[in-house]
Amino acid sequence: FVDPLIAFQLNHGADSDALRAFHRIVHDRNGNDTAEFLFLPVNNASAIREGDHWSLLLVDRRNQERPVAYHYDSLRGHNDEPAARLAARLGADLQDASMAQQKNGYDCGVFAVDGTRALVRRLAGRRQADLRNLDNLVADRRALQNRLRG
Hints:
alpha/beta; Adenoviral Proteinase, Chain; 4-stranded mixed beta sheet; two-stranded parallel sheet; 6 strands
């Protein structure tokens, strides 16, 4: 699970800074690459503009020679550019993925968190989990608040 600040640095930082941040994420203390999956929050912020939308990029690194990234956006198309840039910087082939769509202008973060939770459950359940489809995701702001309180 990648910190949003590190994800931003990976997306917008100098290549050397991004590479160092990436290695801190995927390598253990002994220098072994241990990350099969990366969950990266994507924001449409830039160096000169505050962001106002969150989505999720899942990078499947089980085949490290050909990593695949899936972008889940609850406002389809809104974060395509930053997600594509981030996938490219991580050397991943961006594949189509779908997600339920939010019905308001403020639940994107809830969708990103609940989408992460749903994908983790799928991956924990079986190795050949369907990673392309979160169309049936029910993002629940109140349930998320209750989980965070507990």
